[in-house]
Amino acid sequence: MMESSRLPSKPEKRSEVKPEKKINAKQGRTHGLSQPLTGEESYKNDHLTHAAFVSIAILTFITFVGNFTQLQLSAALPTIVSDFGISVTTGQWLTSIFQLVMGVMVPLTAYLTRRFSTRQIVIASMAVFTLGSVFAWLGSSFVLVLIGRLLEAVGTGVMWPVLQITVFSIYPLSRRGMAMGTVGMAMSVAPAIGPTLGGVQTDLNGWRSIFLTLTVIGVISLFLAIFGLRNFGTRDASAKADFFSVGLSVFGFGGLMFGFTNIESYPFTHPMVWLAILIGLVGIVWFVLRQIHGARRQAADPSKQPPLLNLSVLKNKSFTVGTVTAALSFFAFSSIMVIMPLYIQDCRGYSATISGLVMLPGAFGQCIAQFFGGKALDRLGARPVALIGSITLLFGTIMMSLISMTSWIWWVSIWQFVRQIGMGFVLMPITTWSLNCLEPEEVSAGSAVTNTVRQIAGAIGAPVLVILMETFTALRWAAIGGAKSMYAAANVFGIQWALRVSATICFIMVVMVFFGVRGNGAGSTRDTVQRALGRMHAHTAA
């Protein structure tokens, strides 16, 4: 009887255990993706582990998509303007909305990376990006397409800072230059091929095919993030955002960039320009004062909520020098990318295709330079690399300013290639060095600050240089009699002087690098070895 009473209980025990094991296995897989990778799990034997490599590749691809999307519509704008029967100024908002929204999103990066995990940020971002692409693809009115572009910008606005923070959390100090140079290559290629592919798609299948492609890419990115991305770093679930500061950043950064963007379409006396700039400046001043007060309050009481944008990192002189230098390079870069197509198409009469081909080699030059610039940073330190880069950028800009109505058109391509070689040796190494100079817990705030400053510099660079170009053009045209046939020559004169102003900015960069990029913490292997030897000597003496 005892034997028979035991028999029925055996299958019951097995039936209870099996489902439990299945549930635990499933939970284990989910927990495995959500569990943050430690330093040892991310980087072993001087190489990325498989899990870390896959995650960095996914983040780089998604960030590439954001940069690619930002400029992809430039070639399709005339068709969109014609289809919706709107003005060119209105149509340009499809491209300028990216800079405006990203300028607002960047200050949120420090809070988002504190409050949410890497997976949560990326998955939410790609969901919003995909939704925006669907809106723009199927939108029956210009307003719906514009809303779609806005959502795309929201979805990609924080991806570059998140990628920066992830690279800094994974790589040791002596390898960050190489890592940032490698991911920077992808970022350099995106603006080069975006307009070209956008134009081809528009010619073959219409402009809506661009958004159909972006919808598919968004879905792919979403699945990659869900099934392949790992978390990095720690998060504070109790972190809160100062949403009043968010509002100030909207009016401040958004208003300033809105006003400067409209300078190309309205006179400065128009409210769309001066009033927007005034609101922007008031918002920025108020925002900055509020962040400074918030930082002081938290320093006195660590339990207080941190500021939205921790400007206390600017107390670090090296970080400030690197941030200002990077901002100046963005200012010069964005202005040339607008001015030179005007010279090629309006002054010389070449097609948009030729204009794209002339400017294309420069982007690949910057891509290559950023990779080797990162490697050189690890070996030599920031100062020699950035100094070579800034001098190269200065020389290329001076030579480009020698253009005339009869210059060989590929002269522009040659010196744009040289300029962007210089950019590659300045931008990524100087950014990496400046963030290396911060404490590990300050990198997130530093990344948000440097990206905000660069975004603003890039947004105002083109309008400011275009205004200077138009001013010099008008003065020259009046001096030579104002004949319509002479306007192209006057325009070349204006472009020459705009390039000379850009060269002056590059010279200021050279001076800043020469005198400002000094001391330890430059991210070089030499400094790392010296610190390691110092610790060994201290340990031996003890």
UniProtKB/TrEMBL annotation:
Residues 1-39 are annotated as: Disordered. The keyword Glycosyltransferase does not apply. GO terms for cellular component: plasma membrane. Coiled coil: none annotated. The chain crosses the membrane at residues 51-73, 93-112, 121-147, 153-171, 178-198, 210-229, 241-260, 272-289, 319-344, 350-373, 385-411, 417-435, 456-477, 497-517. Residues 55-521 form the Major facilitator superfamily (MFS) profile domain. It is found in: Cell membrane. Keywords: Cell membrane, Membrane, Transmembrane, Transmembrane helix, Transport. Its main location: membrane. InterPro entries: EmrB-like (IPR004638), MFS (IPR011701), MFS_dom (IPR020846), MFS_trans_sf (IPR036259). Pfam families: MFS_1 (PF07690). It comes from the Bacteria. PROSITE patterns: MFS. Residues 9-23 have a biased composition (Basic and acidic residues). The keyword Transport applies. It is a multi-pass membrane protein. Belongs to the major facilitator superfamily. EmrB family. PANTHER family: MAJOR FACILITATOR SUPERFAMILY MULTIDRUG TRANSPORTER MFSC. This is Widely conserved hypothetical transport protein. The lineage of its organism: Bacteria, Bacillati, Actinomycetota, Actinomycetes, Bifidobacteriales.
